[in-house]
Automatic annotation (TrEMBL):
UniProt source species: Exaiptasia diaphana
Name the UniProt record assigns to this protein: PiggyBac transposable element-derived protein domain-containing protein
PANTHER family: PIGGYBAC TRANSPOSABLE ELEMENT-DERIVED PROTEIN 4
UniProt domain PiggyBac transposable element-derived protein: residue ranges: 1-167
Pfam families: DDE_Tnp_1_7
């Protein structure tokens, strides 16, 4: 309350988001001469019991429907849009509304429809959207992801806030020094572009540098290009050469260890199928 002490009883209407709002605050501000409006969370202390479980209520209602309850000077109102929107106000009337356009998908096709929107929500969007820039900028390209541990969420949120604050300060500095070539950027320089430029500077990348040289693919060694060594396994298998030539099952422990071979072969002084297998003549004929 002390933050708005200089503005009391001067005809101002205060708007705020659900981080601050409560029925008690709305009433206290009204008593201090400041009408106010703010979105609200259903779990806030003093919120009307009959208006809780808004998601379940919204499933039963058509788009544009409302429900409301009044607690003294404070109006609590819920409106069904894509999802339920909850708002508190000490100056609004639940019966005032206007028609707005929305898109709705029917039969796999998007169509424009007109729905009722409470005047209090229209006014909130009109006056709050021009002020609540931080949440708007944070909502784009942020680092938050679902299923994060709470401390990771907090850490990355702080990173996002630091980036957004830096972007705002950079834009102010750029506007004050328009003759500085180092600060020249496109007219519509977005926070996403600022974030990308920041990353490039941190990792030392040029804006338009040559693409990194890709590592040449590892060439698969051909039959006669790699080292082929005989090894002895624990199980006997048919000798590949003997079975190919004679169709007889002559099982041996020895095999070729090269990845492109992996076949069992005789490899002894009496019979060297290992050498026969690794000849081009044998490979061509078989």
């Amino acid at each position: 309350m002390h933050l708005i002490t200089p503005l009391l009883n001067q005809g101002y209407h205060l708007y705020f988001d659900n981080f601050y709002s409560s029925i008690k605050l709305i009433k206290d501000l009204f008593q201090a001469g400041v009408p106010s409006t703010g979105t609200a969370a259903e779990n806030r202390k003093g919120f009307p019991q009959s208006m809780k479980k808004g998601k379940e209520w919204a499933k039963r209602e058509e788009r544009g429907n409302i429900r409301w309850e009044r607690d003294g000077v404070c109006l609590a109102l819920q409106w069904k849009d894509n999802k339920p929107v909850t708002i508190l106000s000490s100056i609004a009337n639940a019966n005032n509304y206007l028609m707005v356009e929305r898109k709705e998908k029917t039969n796999n096709q998007w169509n424009n429809i007109r729905v009722k929107q409470p005047q209090v929500i229209h006014s909130y969007n009109q006056y709050m959207n021009g002020v609540d820039r931080s949440d708007q900028l944070l909502a784009k390209n942020n680092a938050l992801r679902k299923c994060m541990r709470w401390w990771k969420t907090l850490f990355f949120h702080m990173i996002d806030i630091a980036i957004v604050n830096s972007y705002i300060l950079f834009e102010i500095h750029r506007a004050e020094h328009q003759d500085n070539d180092l600060l020249k950027r496109p007219k519509k320089y977005s926070v996403a572009e600022f974030r990308e430029e920041l990353v490039r500077q941190l990792v030392g990348l040029e804006e338009f540098g040559d693409p990194p040289l890709s590592k040449p693919p590892t060439k698969q060694p051909e039959l006669f290009e790699s080292s082929h060594l005989p090894e002895f396994g624990k199980a006997k298998r048919n000798c590949k050469v003997c079975y190919t030539v004679t169709k007889k099952e002559l099982k041996v422990f020895s095999f070729c260890s090269a990845p492109q071979c992996q076949v069992h072969l005789h490899c002894n002084t009496d019979k060297n199928c290992f050498a026969t297998w690794h000849t081009k003549d044998f490979q061509r004929q078989n």
